[in-house]
Amino acid sequence: MINEKLQAEFNEQINKEFFSEYLYLAMKVYFQEQNLQGFVNWFDVQVQEEHAHAMGMFDYLNERGGSIELKAIEKPVVEGNTPLEIFEQVLRHEEFVTSRINHLMDVAEEVKDRAALHFLDWYLKEQVEEESTVSGVLATLKLIGDDKKALLLLDKDLATRTFVQPVIG
Ligand code: FEO
Fold first, then answer.
1. 130 CA closest ligand 1 atom index
2. Under 8 Å between Cβ of 25 and 43
3. Which tens digit of pLDDT belongs to each residue from 73-97?
4. Which end of the chain, N or C, is more open, meaning fewer C-beta atoms within 10 Å of its C-beta?
């Protein structure tokens, strides 16, 4: 049986991962409206990844005999009106998620749940990858500035991203 405090943190994080899915879906809408189909694809993949992150925790909590509580998902707000501003928000959000995973690990450590720590290790590595990918796009967007042709080239590049179902844990 999983510790109640840790269970509450897992439930909170399941909600945050679903919120991430929702936030990226809202960003996808922005890029659909701009007709930047490569960015749309990038966010499509991001949406699927966040769903997988949420379900990974959902399944784990169930496997551990925990009680799953689905909470209301906050309305996502896209901050900014340019691809650059939106990717700045993506990075801020991923940094927030990283801090949440670190917090979950702190609680797992506090209640001496080594199995949960081992499980959460996957999420920690995933966050390093997420932040690095987003920082890469952000750096390119900074270089691009107002150059529309360069933006279309990046859009072409982002169209090649594909979703791979992650093996979590
Ligand atoms: Fe599930 Fe992008 O963190």
1. 2
2. yes
3. 999 999 999 999 999 999 999 999 9
4. N
